[in-house]
Specification:
The chain is mainly alpha-helical and 222 residues long. It has helices at residues 3-91, 98-118, 135-147, 154-190, 196-219. It has one domain (3-219): Orthogonal Bundle (Helix Hairpins). The radius of gyration is 40 Å and the shape is rod-shaped.
Length: 222
């Protein structure tokens, strides 16, 4: 190679080293940001998991309390119906026992008051047509309602964190390629007696590594 060609090549390589060094620094800075975003997503996943467990346990407890209130209501109501039936039989008997009628009337009124009071202790819209309490439907509605208030989806945060980590790993590969390229250019700039073919081969390899590193870095930047 002529001296003029060597000078031009040296200038180009020097500029290339400066650009690649600057880009590597920016790439490392962005990779740190992405690692931080991944950490934030993992933290959000932990919070969502804690909120999910809290919502499930709290609403399960509330649902079972309502179910117990329904069972108490059903017991009072069954007793009311039984006493009301006994009262009707006592009233229509051949020989009406006034004391028995008064006693049954008092018991019926007491059971009526109890079952009407207990009816207010649980949401009666979950009573099915067959007279059973749909515990699972209430629990599902309570959790769905809380899902609109809280973040209960830890898996979405974990997946996003994994995507961030993948980008950071790819950017790390890009930094390795850039480091290889900078090393090659440093050798070319330092060693003066390289054969022309060797130098051209190293220049080609250096720019190939640089190109691969820059492209990989840009793709995974955002």
């Amino acid at each position: 190679m002529t001296e003029q060609t060597d000078t031009r090549l040296g200038t180009i390589i020097a500029i290339t080293i400066s650009v690649l060094t600057l880009f590597s620094g920016l790439l490392g800075w962005q990779m740190g940001n992405i690692r931080g975003s991944a950490a934030d997503e993992y933290s959000s996943a932990q919070r969502a998991e804690l909120d999910r467990q809290k919502v499930i346990s709290t609403n399960t407890l509330a649902s079972y309390e309502n179910h117990r209130a329904f069972l108490a209501y059903k017991n009072y109501f069954d007793q009311y119906r039984l006493i009301a039936q006994q009262l009707e039989e006592a009233k229509t008997a051949t020989l009406v026992d006034a004391n028995l009628v008064a006693q049954l009337t008092s018991q019926r009124d007491e059971m009526q008051l109890l079952y009407l009071s207990s009816l207010k202790l649980f949401p009666n819209q979950f009573i099915d047509r067959d007279g059973t309490y749909n515990l699972q439907e209430q629990l599902g509605q309570l959790i769905a309602s809380d899902a609109r208030k809280y973040d209960l989806d830890p898996e979405s945060h974990k997946k996003q964190a994994q995507r961030y980590n993948l980008r950071a790993e790819n950017m790390q590969i890009a930094l390795i390629l850039l480091a290889v390229s900078l090393f090659i250019f440093a050798v070319i700039s330092t060693v003066q007696d390289l054969k022309p073919r060797v130098m051209l081969g190293m220049v080609a390899l250096g720019y190939l590594s640089a190109f691969a590193g820059v492209v990989n870095g840009i793709i995974n930047w955002s």
